[in-house]
Specification:
Cytidine Deaminase, domain 2; globular; UPF0758_CS; 3 helices; 133 residues; single chain; hydrolase; zinc; alpha+beta; 5 strands; five-stranded mixed sheet
Length: 133
């Protein structure tokens, strides 16, 4: 009898779990990157999408692309994470405004934006902890 391959299920149900998912890729990155983790109803990771910024440009938050991926993956929640190569993890006005645009677009399809994390200089800022979501 052939054994079925077991896929490791990753649960992302806390800030620490989200930090553990994104920190290895974002704490040392020299270019700006945006990751979007897609989660199912049990907060199991079902997909991660990555976008790079153009050299010297800030990262673009692709609201339409995130919504399209969420529909394609049948996501219940997303967690965004990006880095500020400058070393300052403070969310910019643009970070806040585009995240709010995503919140408005996600609401009608029942998609929850669980958090948006910004990494920089070895630190991390959570939009949820700061009351920005």
């Amino acid at each position: 009898m052939e054994r079925a391959k077991r896929r490791r299920v990753r649960i992302v149900d806390s800030l620490e779990a989200a930090r553990g998912l994104f920190a290895p890729a974002l704490t040392r990155a020299r270019d700006e990157r945006l990751y979007v983790a897609h989660l199912d109803a049990g907060r199991r990771l079902i997909g991660v999408r990555l976008r790079f910024a153009a050299e010297g440009e800030p990262i673009d938050l692709p609201v339409r692309g995130i919504i399209a991926d969420a529909v394609a993956l049948d996501s219940n929640e997303v967690i965004l994470a990006h880095n500020h190569p400058s070393g300052d993890p403070t969310p910019s006005i643009t970070d806040i405004e585009t995240t709010r645009s995503l919140l408005r677009a996600a609401r009608p399809i029942g998609l929850t934006v669980r958090d948006h994390l910004v990494f920089g200089g070895g630190d991390m800022v959570s939009f949820r902890e700061r009351g920005l979501l």
